[in-house]
Amino acid sequence: MKMCCVGNKDSLNRTDPYKASYIQCNETIVLSHAYQHATVSSPGFPRPYPDDAECVTEIRAPPQHSIRLHFEELLTEHEPQ
User: Where does the record place the CUB domain (predicted)?
Assistant: First the structure.
């Protein structure tokens, strides 16, 4: 089973401290019988990530297994009206 989660990360403004940790983005987590749990957070957590940014975390589990997500905190970017 494969799952992909899209969060946010902006690499255009490199002087912003929230955007400087670009290397923490775009990772793949491979779960196995020995490695059954993982923690995923947005770059710089608990600081907010910038609007209009993109960061991808792919979570893979062995065949015939499922992935269960538990969110302790979930905030999305503000959409101006």
Answer: 25-81
Q: Using an 8 Å Cβ cutoff, are 5 and 76 in contact?
A: no
> Are 55 and 9 within 8 A, CB to CB?
yes
pLDDT at 60: 92
CA-closest candidate to residue 58, choices 35, 33, 38, 34: 38
Show me where the domains of the chain are located.
Answer: 1-65
Those residues with Cβ within 8 angstroms of residue 77's Cβ, 6 or more apart along the chain or in another chain: 8, 49, 51, 52
Comparing CA positions, the residue from 13, 39, 28, 26 lying closest to residue 61 is 28
